[in-house]
Write a structure and sequence with these properties.
single chain, alpha+beta, six-stranded antiparallel beta sheet, five-stranded mixed beta sheet, 11 helices, 11 strands, 45% helix, 20% strand, elongated
Length: 375
């Protein structure tokens, strides 16, 4: 293969990976691009799960053999079947040597696990290149040719090393993008989801509610006593209180499958659930109030619940559910209640949330329309 052809192949691989937007797209672009560049008909990208001692296949691209899935959920192999991962790769190149690729063929006399795999799947040869991230073994790039095709040679192995480096750069880019996305939807102080994440998930939840009637519930919490802690002990102590309550919220949210625990801002938090019944959510909200009252600082939490599983009237948008939970939380705070107030169960929250803004005795509820109620 000429130098110009290989250069174009490297550029094509880099461009394909840079155009990817999800981890699966990155994996597929890397495997397929390397396969095309090396003249193979199959490629796989695998990651070394150090904590489990397994080599996990992320993607199988190209001519897959029977039983090979494009994105397998559970195709893993014990690394002791591939000693080069833990011995050759780690000792030879992680310690300062070059991360060289190597070739194996179905005709090799030493029946390694890879040789057995080639024979079993009707492939003639493979080239294996280590993928190195941050100076450590991350995994491997594997490209194969069918039986009867010219086997890979040493030049191919050297080129595969270059391609693996390009793939590694793409994976680093993917990790950075994933981190940016995570930061965009995460509260930096508590590590919980932020308001943006709640809005996105709530819109999706309402669509599901309309489609199949799944119960959607929102628990809105106002942490009592934060200002007093800040004024008396300083903002560092206030931040610790917010962090501790965030941990309590996360722990209680774990009792509800798929719950999203979030900090809306300041001293306001929420739990969003799709699926669990209203009574389950209220029970968890009660547990949350108990645990919040046990925190060393602060004065407990005011908690309001709104659920489509309760008689709250028509739900035309996510904003109304937020207003209902907000109004319930306001009632809990005004009454200094040690238990959650639930919209639709006390006779006051729903009219309060749906009343025009000028008739309310408090600030406009979150996302309320300027004049007319929705329902």
């Amino acid at each position: 293969m000429g130098e110009d052809v290989r250069l174009r192949a490297v550029v094509a691989l880099a461009q394909a990976m840079s155009a990817a937007h999800t981890p699966r797209e990155f994996w597929l672009a890397g495997a397929q691009g390397a396969c095309d560049a090396l003249g193979g008909d199959f490629a796989a990208l695998s990651v070394w799960q150090r904590d489990r001692g397994r080599l996990k296949v992320l993607v199988n691209a190209g001519a897959r053999a029977p039983g090979e899935e494009e994105f397998p959920d559970s195709e893993t192999y014990p690394v002791h079947h591939f000693p080069e991962i833990t011995e050759f790769l780690h000792e030879q190149w992680a310690g300062g040597g070059a991360p060289d690729a190597w070739v194996e063929t179905a005709d090799d006399r030493v029946p390694t696990a890879r040789v057995a795999g080639l024979r079993r799947r009707g492939r003639g040869s493979c080239v294996v290149a280590p993928v190195v991230l941050h100076g450590r073994a991350w995994g491997e790039l594997y490209v194969a040719r069918p039986a009867g095709a010219p086997p890979f040679d040493r030049d191919d192995a050297e080129f595969a090393t270059v391609l693996a480096a390009v793939v590694a750069a793409g994976i680093v880019q993917a990790e950075r993008l994933a981190e940016v996305r995570k930061l965009a939807f995460t509260d930096p102080l508590t590590g919980l989801a932020n308001r943006r994440a709640v809005d996105t998930r709530l819109d999706e939840a309402i669509e599901r509610y309309r489609a199949d009637g799944s119960v959607v519930s929102l628990v809105v919490c106002d942490l009592n006593g934060l200002k007093s802690v800040n004024d008396t002990h300083g903002h560092a102590a206030g931040d610790r209180l917010l962090e501790r309550f965030g941990s309590v919220l996360s722990r209680c949210g774990a009792m509800l499958p798929g719950a999203l625990a979030a900090r809306l801002g300041g001293d306001e938090f929420c739990l969003l659930t799709v699926g669990p019944g209203a009574d389950e959510v209220v029970a968890v909200a009660e547990e949350l109030c108990v645990r919040a009252a046990e925190l060393e600082t602060g004065e407990g939490v005011a908690c309001g619940v709104a659920s489509t599983g309760d008689p709250i009237g028509p739900l035309k948008s996510a904003r109304r559910l937020f207003r209902l939970a907000d109004a319930a939380q306001y009632q809990a705070k005004a009454a200094r209640s040690s238990k959650p107030v639930v919209a639709g169960r006390d006779g006051t929250v729903v009219p309060l949330a749906d009343a025009p803004p000028e008739t309310r005795d408090r600030r406009r509820f979150r996302d309320a329309p300027p004049v007319r109620p929705e329902s």
